[in-house]
Amino acid sequence: MDNMRIAAIFDVDGTLITGDSLEGIFIRFLWRRGELGWRDLGRFAVSELNSLVTWRTPFRANKAYLQGKNTAHIRRLARECFELEIAPCLLPDAINRLRWHQSAGHFVILLSGTLDLLLEQLAEYLGVSARIGSELEVEGRLFTGRLAGLHPFGEAKAESVKVMKGLGLFNLKRSFAYANSYSDRHLLAYIGNPVATNADSRLRRLAEKRSWMIENFTCRKERMSMEKAYD
């Protein structure tokens, strides 16, 4: 048990960045660049309508707006969008906490339902080697508009962590998880040191009830010492 590593799992939207989502920023970026048009949005709307009728695909898993887009081109745009519009929106408090975990030798993991091609840019920027995001299905060199594999949202985030437990590499009782949404409650409940970060009202009430740590990451430098949290 002593040889098992401590993990620090970070949600992204609302936790490392607030007021928006990585994918929301990216969609508007593509629209302004003329990479998305009314036909793409119409395809997205039709796909969503079909999902509502059949109950097959959750709204957050609908990527029909990227159907038929060249993968290499979209990845280049993702990098540009990150550098110009996403990186400046990261919360210094949150990044400072993530850096603290890195300096403590903890294994940092980004866990988000956002597009993996966006999460990849963030992980590279932060020097994080592990990430779990939404992989897009590819046929030839084009995106199909569908996901390939698990959509890590809600309970699926906890399922991802259960896989980690099965590997026997991490001491989850001493590990940390940071998330902002009530939908992340399953993830937080599965980790020994859950942190409700910039929590919505339902998550805050749950955190207070269960005596979880509550943090508000803002633009000022975060100074709280974390040494006692895992002693």
Topology summary:
Blueprint: E1 7-10, H1 22-32, H2 38-54, H3 71-86, H4 92-103, E2 107-115, H5 116-126, E3 130-134, E4 136-139, E5 142-147, H6 155-167, E6 176-179, H7 185-189, E7 193-197, H8 201-210, E8 213-215
Any descriptors?
231 residues; alpha/beta; Rossmann fold; six-stranded parallel β-sheet; two-stranded antiparallel sheet; 8 helices; 17% strand; globular; disordered C terminus
Give a written overview of the molecule:
It is a single chain. The chain has eight helices and eight strands, in the order βααααβαβββαβαβαβ. The chain has 231 residues and is α/β, with parallel strands linked by helices. It has a single domain, classed as Rossmann fold, CATH 3.40.50. The chain has a six-stranded parallel beta sheet. The protein is globular. The chain starts with 6 loop residues before the first strand and ends in a 16-residue tail after the last strand. The C terminus is likely disordered.
The CATH architecture comes to: 3-Layer(aba) Sandwich
What strand order characterises the main sheet? 3-2-1-6-7-8
Average pLDDT for all residues: 85
- Element order, helices and strands? EHHHHEHEEEHEHEHE
The coarse silhouette is globular
The separation of the N and C termini measures 15 Å
Contiguous helical run count: 8
Radius of gyration: 18 Å
Helix proportion range = 40-55%
Largest sheet: 6 strands, parallel
Low-pLDDT segments: 46-59, 221-231
Into how many domains do the coordinates divide? 1
Class from helix and strand fractions? alpha/beta
Number of strands: 8
The name of the CATH superfamily reads HAD superfamily/HAD-like
Fraction of residues in β-strands: 15-25%
Question: What is the fold named in CATH at topology level?
Answer: Rossmann fold
The CATH first-level class comes to Alpha Beta
